[in-house]
């Protein structure tokens, strides 16, 4: 599992590392890694045209030294120095010595055609969007070079490296080459969208990083290691029984989808309780279906809320779920009902683990405000306040636990932004809880696998929630192989 670190932690580690190295060695390491990725991106290095967008300080220095590496291999490298008074003079001299050129930063003329653009304007210390007159000049260049691949140095300029906030003009990178440690702003929110493919270059920083990471990024091996697998002496009950309280006369499809998600998980049996019992029986013959939670029988975990509605019947069903001494995943209508003051004591008095799965609108109702630009901190605060694991949905779903640990799911896809996919996720998450996974791991594993299923479904055309449910088994198989 990878970790991401905040800017202050990275800065402190860089200072500690530089004390052990000759002057300039750290920048040379970073520039060499950047140049290597640039060379891999170009169809060929010799004869290619590379434009460096150079800002002040070390970020611009990294770009210039990387440009010098490429120029020595025969690339035609031009630097657009946006603030000549603050340019890294040693790096600029190295570029010129290697045969690179410098373009004027003034005027609105097109810089010409290029095969690659390297964004070295602002580094991890930048806050806010690009400011004038740099913003206008960069906009001109971006317009003239539309379609040209862009590699960002450490972080796309205009992206907050700690939060992922984009509050003004920012570079859209196809690839971000980041040095020493992942930064949370590359992984969440608008920052993740602007960062494209993120590649980490090892510059020797890891032993010097101190404190707790800002967040963790699981990979397939982590999820596969957690995933419950049946033992030789297991039966359907010992593998875990998940109860699904979802759907209603108005939203029967939510029941079908959430049960489909539960069936794809590791639990041995699914019990359904709700107003769509007849439809669930017809669509999913292995499921034991009843009309009420109170009649469902014994379960090891509950998923509750998808399409449940907010009437008095739904309130009674949620209260029964919260009163059960087993883990619970609360989704959709259940989150709306939680805002009702009558539910406060039921949630507060629970001893069993609880996972809530809000999208941004539901988060706003639960927290009293939108997640805002710093989605990681917002998710942690809600988890602490509710004493629940929070799975904040989005293109990069965030899982936050009450003790402050945060995970960012790397498998999300915009294809999942369609009705009903959250119902599938909730069912899968409940199955993982019933099979015995701790709430935090169940939430991460469900989000990761759900994201994989979304990607698999998107590979064949437009995605529906039913497509995602269909591809869950393939996604689980992918994890194990």
Q: Could you please describe the fold and organization of this structure?
A:
The chain is of the alpha/beta class. A 9-stranded mixed β-sheet has the order 12-11-10-13-14-15-16-17-18, sandwiched between helices. α6 links the parallel β7 and β8. α2 crosses α3, α7 packs across α16 and α8 packs across α15.
Strand and helix layout:
Blueprint: E1 2-4, H1 7-18, H2 25-41, E2 49-54, H3 57-72, E3 76-81, H4 89-97, E4 101-103, E5 116-120, H5 134-144, E6 150-153, E7 175-179, H6 189-195, E8 197-201, E9 215-217, H7 220-226, E10 241-245, H8 252-263, E11 269-273, H9 277-283, E12 288-290, E13 301-304, H10 312-323, E14 328-330, H11 333-338, H12 344-348, E15 354-356, H13 360-367, H14 375-386, E16 389-392, E17 398-400, E18 406-408, H15 421-434, H16 439-458, H17 465-480
Parallel strand pairs: 2-3, 2-5, 3-4, 5-6, 6-7, 7-8, 10-11, 10-13, 11-12, 13-14, 14-15, 15-16
Antiparallel strand pairs: 1-9, 16-17, 17-18
Helix pairs in contact: 2-3, 3-4, 7-16, 8-9, 8-15, 15-16, 15-17, 16-17
Keywords:
single chain, UDP-N-acetylmuramoyl-L-alanine:D-glutamate ligase, alpha/beta, Rossmann fold, 18 strands, 17 helices, 481 residues, 7-stranded parallel beta sheet, 40% helix, 9-stranded mixed beta sheet
Biggest sheet, in brief? 9 strands, mixed
CATH fold name of the largest domain, please? UDP-N-acetylmuramoyl-L-alanine:D-glutamate ligase
CATH fourth-tier homologous superfamily of the largest domain = Ribokinase
Cross-sheet strand order for the largest sheet: 12-11-10-13-14-15-16-17-18
Structural class by helix and strand composition: alpha/beta
Unreliably modeled segments: none
Highest CATH level, the class of the largest domain: Alpha Beta
> Percentage of helical residues?
25-40%
**Structure annotation, total helices:** 17
Mean of pLDDT: 95
CATH architecture type of the largest domain: 3-Layer(aba) Sandwich
Count of extended strands: 18
For the CA atoms, what is the radius of gyration?
26 Å
Domain tally: 2
Shape: elongated
Q: What's the end-to-end separation, in Å? A: 18 Å
Beta-strand proportion:
15-25%
């Amino acid at each position: 599992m990878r970790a991401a670190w905040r800017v202050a932690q990275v800065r402190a580690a860089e200072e500690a590392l530089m004390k052990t190295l000759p002057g300039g060695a750290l920048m040379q390491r970073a520039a060499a890694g950047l140049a290597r990725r640039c060379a891999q991106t170009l169809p060929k290095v010799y004869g290619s045209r590379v434009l460096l967008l150079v800002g002040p300080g070390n970020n611009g220095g990294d770009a210039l030294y990387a440009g010098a590496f490429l120029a020595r291999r025969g690339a035609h490298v031009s630097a657009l120095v946006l603030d000549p008074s603050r340019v890294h003079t040693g790096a600029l001299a190295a570029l010129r010595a290697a045969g690179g050129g410098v373009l004027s930063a003034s005027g609105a003329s097109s810089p010409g055609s290029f095969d690659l653009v390297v964004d070295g304007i602002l580094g991890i210390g930048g806050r806010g969007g690009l400011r004038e007159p740099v913003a206008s000049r960069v906009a001109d260049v971006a317009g003239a070079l539309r379609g040209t691949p862009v590699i960002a140095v450490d972080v796309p300029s205009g992206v907050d490296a700690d939060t992922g906030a984009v509050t003004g003009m920012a570079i859209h990178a196809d690839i971000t080459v980041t040095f020493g440690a992942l930064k949370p702003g590359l992984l969440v929110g608008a920052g993740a969208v602007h960062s494209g493919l993120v590649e980490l270059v090892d510059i020797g920083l890891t032993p010097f990083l101190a404190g707790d990471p800002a967040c963790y990024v699981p990979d397939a091996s982590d999820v596969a290691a957690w995933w419950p697998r049946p033992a030789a002496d297991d039966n359907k009950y010992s593998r875990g029984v998940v109860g699904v309280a979802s759907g209603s006369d108005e939203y029967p499809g939510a029941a079908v989808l959430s049960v489909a998600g539960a069936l794809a998980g590791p639990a041995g049996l699914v019990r359904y309780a709700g107003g769509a019992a007849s439809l669930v029986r017809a669509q999913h013959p292995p499921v034991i279906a009843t009309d009420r939670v109170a009649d469902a029988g014994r379960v090891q975990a509950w998923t509750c809320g998808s399409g449940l509605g907010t009437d008095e019947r739904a309130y009674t069903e949620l209260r029964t779920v919260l009163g059960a001494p087993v883990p619970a995943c609360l989704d959709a209508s259940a989150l709306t009902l939680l805002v009702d003051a009558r539910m406060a004591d039921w949630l507060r008095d629970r001893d069993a683990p609880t996972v809530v799965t809000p999208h941004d609108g539901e988060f706003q109702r639960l927290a009293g405000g939108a997640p805002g630009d710093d989605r990681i901190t917002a998710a942690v605060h809600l988890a602490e306040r509710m004493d629940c694991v929070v799975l904040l949905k989005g293109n990069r779903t965030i899982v936050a636990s009450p003790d402050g640990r945060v995970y960012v799911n790397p498998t999300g896809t915009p294809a999942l932004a369609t009705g009903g996919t959250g119902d599938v996720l909730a069912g899968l998450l409940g199955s993982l809880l019933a099979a015995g996974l701790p709430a935090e791991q169940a939430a991460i594993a469900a989000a990761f696998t759900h994201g994989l299923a979304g990607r698999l479904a998107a590979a064949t055309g437009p995605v529906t929630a039913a497509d995602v449910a269909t591809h869950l088994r393939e996604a689980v198989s992918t994890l194990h192989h």
